[in-house]
Amino acid sequence: MIINVGRKPHVVFENRLAKAKKIESIIKLEKKIKSEHKLLEVGTGSGEIAFYYAKHYQQEVFAVDISDNRQFVNGYSFQLVSDTKLPYDDNFFDIVISNHVIEHVGEKQQQQQHLDEINRVLKPDGILYLAVPNRWMLVEPHYQLIFLSWLPKKFRSYYLKKLRNIDFYDCEPLQQNEVEYLLRESKFEYRNYCVEALDIFVREEKGYRGIYGIFRWIPSWLLKKIVWLIPTQIYVAKR
């Protein structure tokens, strides 16, 4: 990942096991996970997701990040990186996970490079799990401010400064058409799994508490009509 001046890694330490299992459930809709598969997690953070796959599947797992904030350090190979370049050969991985990373790597150019690099290191039959917060989420998850990402880009840092005394809004969340444009530009075929992932998230991570309880009563056919409003955009992509 590349972090421009003022950008932070935003490491999450809670609910990583539940997140690993949700990612696993979505991946399995497209590809059976096998012990002989090589897996890469880009932006590993605490390391728990990489650790889960290494332990659960006894597979060869790799992880990269711009800083080492790991709480789980065993069972997989880890490398520090300074930009979007991945230190691996072409056609090396069967599965790559980019979970809430692309919004942190920089501007659109760096986001495109992030996906280009993943395409390069994936095997021809490999898959990418991609999750990115939706620009149209009601509450921005990194700073917990309502409508922060809805604002025009030039006003976001001003809003953040006024309410959190933070000078720079260091994330670039994407709306659905922007994610899909970047995937196409990186020569990926893709499928949106927001509805399936939301069901798993509500049932297994959050239960039916609070605002997420709303989704219990919305039928899948209707969710598919308003998928562009779901707080996290989730895709499985293939070369």
Question: What is this structure, in a nutshell?
Answer:
The protein has about 240 residues and is an alpha/beta fold. The protein is built from seven helices and nine strands; from the N terminus they run αβαβββαβββααβααβ.
Order of helices and strands: HEHEEEHEEEHHEHHE
- Main beta sheet, described? 7 strands, mixed
What is the SS-derived class?
Answer: alpha/beta
- The largest sheet has its strands arranged as 3-2-1-4-5-9-8
Instruction: Give me the number of helical elements.
Output: 7
Give the C-alpha Rg.
17 Å
Briefly, what CATH class of the largest domain?
Alpha Beta
Average residue pLDDT:
89
CATH level-two architecture of the largest domain: 3-Layer(aba) Sandwich
Helical content band: 25-40%
- Span from first to last CA? 21 Å
List unreliable stretches of 5+ residues. 1-5
| β-strand amount | 15-25%
Quantity of strands, as a count: 9
Indicate how many domains the architecture comprises.
Answer: 2
CATH topology assignment of the largest domain: Rossmann fold
Tell me the name of the CATH homologous superfamily of the largest domain. Vaccinia Virus protein VP39
The gross shape turns out to be globular
